[in-house]
Amino acid sequence: MAVIDINADLGEGFGIWELGDDLALLDVITSANVACGFHAGDPLIMRRVCAAAVERGVTIGAQVSYRDLAGFGRREMDVAPPELTAEVLYQIAALDGIARAEGGRVAYVKPHGALYNRVARDAVQARAVADAVRAYDPSLPLLTLPGSAVGDVAEGLTVVAECFADRAYTSSGRLMSRREPGAVVHDRDVVVQRAVRMAVEGIVVSVEGGTVALDARSMCVHGDTPGAVDLARSVRSALSGAGVELEPFA
Fold first, then answer.
1. Dist CA 165 CA 235 (whole Å)
2. C-alpha span between 52 and 98 (Å, rounded)
3. What is the pTM for the complete model shown?
4. How far apart are CA 89 and CA 148, in angstroms?
5. Across the strands, what pairs with 111?
6. For 120, which of 33, 148, 175, 184 could close a Cys bridge (C-beta 3.0–4.6 Å)?
7. How far is it, in rounded angstroms, from Cα 15 to Cα 19?
8. Cα separations (Å) of 35 from 44, 48, 106, 215?
9. Strand, coil or helix: what is 233?
10. Closest Cα to residue 29, out of 213, 182, 165?
11. Residue 247 burial (CB count, 10 A)
């Protein structure tokens, strides 16, 4: 039987500005990637999301990012490795402290946006992120793309592969840039079919038309797109209907 975790990015508001329906998504997903204040989120939002996740038994992960509130963490930056390590360490520690105050803990780490894509191909920045995780708690898994450069530099760490139900893939197994049209898949039926195929068969059709092998343990459904909650519910229902067991990886 296939086993998959469903994760989503939560806590991505800031102050009075809200993005997505965190509480509704927490009723659907099994793991929550919580923004740590560098691309979105603030202490109050972080606390609310952590408290709600603990109440529902949803696993909490630290979604670490470049320091880029204005660009929502989607602008690639050249940050010196020691600085990047310190900034990632800062984010993990901040969220874990809040999570523990609410009766939970950070159970894994997932880079966000531009940092996520950068560490998939850049061993130097990947090592900087891995060094931060190792310094804080080497038992924390790192969530990343299959074949990511993180896997080559994360000595002593657990690396967990992730797939995306609603993102377009290139033939190399990388995510299509959000700057390109069609990078995010909005058609519910297409997303649901892709999700089941990823979980059951371990493959996805690329934008070029070929199939790409994906040996993923976790599946991301984005919470910041229109109709995100209904889409996440449809994905969960389809996975369960296909006999896939839904279970956190951490």
1. 8
2. 12
3. 0.96
4. 20
5. 64
6. 148
7. 11
8. 12, 12, 12, 26
9. helix
10. 165
11. 13
Structure confidence at residue 225 (pLDDT) = 76
pLDDT tens track for 220-236: 998 777 789 999 999 99
Tell me, what's the pLDDT at 41? 98
- Cβ neighbours for 132, distance < 8 A, ≥ 6 positions apart: 64, 84, 85, 86, 87, 88, 89, 92
The enclosing domain of 13 has a CATH number of: 3.20.20.370
For residues 18 and 41, give the distance between their C-alpha atoms in angstroms, rounded to a whole number.
Answer: 9
pLDDT, tens digit, 9 for 90 and up, residues 80-111: 999 999 999 999 999 999 999 999 999 999 99
Q: CA Rg, the chain, in Å?
A: 17
For position 132, what pLDDT does the model report? 98
**Cβ neighbours for 86, distance < 8 A, ≥ 6 positions apart:** 132
Amino acid at 25: L
The two three-digit tokens of residue 70, written as one number: 């204005």
Number of domains making up the chain: 1
Residues in the chain: 250
70: domain range?
3-246
56-95 as b/e: b if 16+ CB within 10 A = eebbbbbbbbbbbeeebbbebeebeeeebbbbbbbbbbbb
CB of 207 closer than 8 Å to CB of 170 = yes
